[in-house]
Amino acid sequence: MKYGQPILLVIFLCCILGCGGSHRAEKEKAGDDLQQIKDSGELVVLTLYSSTSYFIYRGQDMGFQYELSEQFASSLGVKLRIEVARNVHELIEKLLAGKGDLIAYNLPITKEWKDSLIYCGEEVITHQVIVQRAGGRTKPLKDVTELIGKDVYVKPGKYYNRLVNLDEELGGGIHIHKVTNDSISMEDLITQVSQGKIPYTVADNDLAQLNTTYYPNLNIGLSISFDQRASWAVRKNCPKLAAAANKWHEENMTSPAYTASMKRYFEISKAIPHSPILSLREGKISHFDDLFKKYAPEINWDWRLLASLAYTESNFDSTAVSWAGARGLMQLMPGTARAMGVPAGKEQNPEESIKAAVKYIAATARSFAKVPEEERINFILASYNSGIGHVQDAMALAEKYGKDKYTWRDNVENFILLKSNEEYFSDPVCKNGYFRGIETYNFVRDITSRFDQYKKKIKH
Questions:
Q1: 415/393 Cα distance (integer angstroms)
Q2: Name one Pfam family in it (predicted).
Q3: Coil, strand, or helix at residue 436?
Q4: Which residues contact 379 (CB under 8 A, 6 or more apart)?
Q5: What is the dihedral of CA 406, 309, 414, 213, to 10 degrees?
């Protein structure tokens, strides 16, 4: 039996790494790796769910790495297929097993994987930064020595470990608070800094930069770690694919598409400026009140609720275009607008926008037929903001953890919040991955509270 063990080990490793198990990996060994992909008509990209890589928003695939992958696939003349892994280790495992062609993620460049991978594409520099508030009475920290005596809140893992090391380097004195609560994500801590609930946290610079588009009062200028190089990666036996990725990045770094993606995620403000009621004395909420009154009865809504939704979506600006590409008064995504019958070029026509939104709300309502009528509005509003899939995930999580999946407030809304936390969005009951749930949580609460205000101030 002892003599058989090495053979069994080889067989086991072959199974793990895809020896003979992956048709594509075998074909690549035999010939031109890039041509095989072109012949298949499909580029299979491996990535992770996150706010900077890949997520689903209002039923549409989004994310910086996703958009770059789509642009690269298009340059090769093939379609893109996304496969999501649970963590970096699984990303590499899936790639080596031939379950994908390319890792599109800021993969740390390390000696450990240089024999197995070819790093390619744009090489980015990542580092950890202190996230703090800008302005106000307290001046932002400009040097790591100023952290002595300060309270810094971090999640366990690399951020906590870096702070502990930095504390030792400085001779002690940083008050490090390890946040072990599973329901609080890294992005929740950044939100708490913006709101003044905690003074400091730590994040990677790309995540921190993305969050400044939601919270312009953040300062992310103080670096506390060494630079870490990161890039895309392919298998060692795919040199032509790597060369194509390098060439594409070199030629497209200044292209309109690449620039637009960079701005969408890391520069354009995600906040919508809001103004008060148009005329309280005349009983007017907006210039579009007659249209709200015309179409609201089709879904059995109070017109003031439809107005409250429009206010939150666009601030009654019919020319508004969101960071995600949603357009018009009711901020419908292009695909949704087409599906709801909006003629091409009419996305910013107020009546077409309202008519389509009402049609979409009616369709969404049918998806929540089992939810009690008095609760259904919350689920519809949440779905309007996030897409139905994320709300269904939150309902499944609520049921799993013993909460009422048909009640929004203090039940399902708490689980949409948790969709930004890896432990929850990677749960088998979730089908739609990562989502920045705080936006939907606030969206529903803002609209329903404003509707209450409108009812008190504006006649039906």
A1: 8
A2: SBP_bac_3
A3: coil
A4: 368, 371, 391, 408, 412
A5: 150
Give the span between the Cα atoms of 391 and 369, in whole angstroms.
14
DSSP state for residue 455 in the 8-state scheme: H
pLDDT digit string, tens, across residues 104-119: 999 999 989 988 999 9
For 372, the token pair is 């009690």
CB neighbour list of residue 107: distance below 8 Å, 6 or more residues apart: 88, 91, 92, 119, 230, 231, 232, 233
* Bridge partners (DSSP) listed for residue 228: 126
Encode pLDDT of 190-249 as tens digits: 999 999 999 999 999 999 999 999 999 999 999 999 999 999 999 999 999 999 999 999
Q: Which amino acid is at 37?
A: I
Domains of the chain in sequence order: 23-125+229-266 (3.40.190.10), 128-226 (3.40.190.10), 289-457 (1.10.530.10)
Distance CA 306, CA 316 (A): 11
Distance, in Å, from the CA atom of 14 to the CA atom of 12, rounded to the nearest integer, reads 5
State how far the Cα of 365 lies from the Cα of 360, in Å rounded to an integer. Answer: 9
Q: How far apart are CA 131 and CA 195, in angstroms?
A: 12
Predicted confidence (pLDDT) at residue 370 exceeds the cutoff of 60: yes
* Confidence grade of residue 269 (pLDDT, cut at 50, 70, 90): confident
Give the number of other CB atoms < 10 A from CB of residue 353.
27
User: How far apart, in whole angstroms, are the C-alpha atoms of residue 415 and residue 430?
Assistant: 11
Quick one: 190 exposed, middle or buried, by C-beta within 10 A (0-12, 13-18, 19+)?
Answer: buried
What is the three-class DSSP state of 369?
Answer: coil
Q: Please name the residues in contact with 224: beta carbons below 8 A apart, sequence gap of 6 or more.
A: 127, 128, 129, 130, 144, 147, 162, 163, 166, 202
Residue matched to tokens 């637009």: 260
Q: What is the mean pLDDT of the chain?
A: 89
CA-based nearest residue to 43, from 17, 74, 20: 74
**pLDDT higher for 445 or 269?**
445
3-state secondary structure of 210: helix
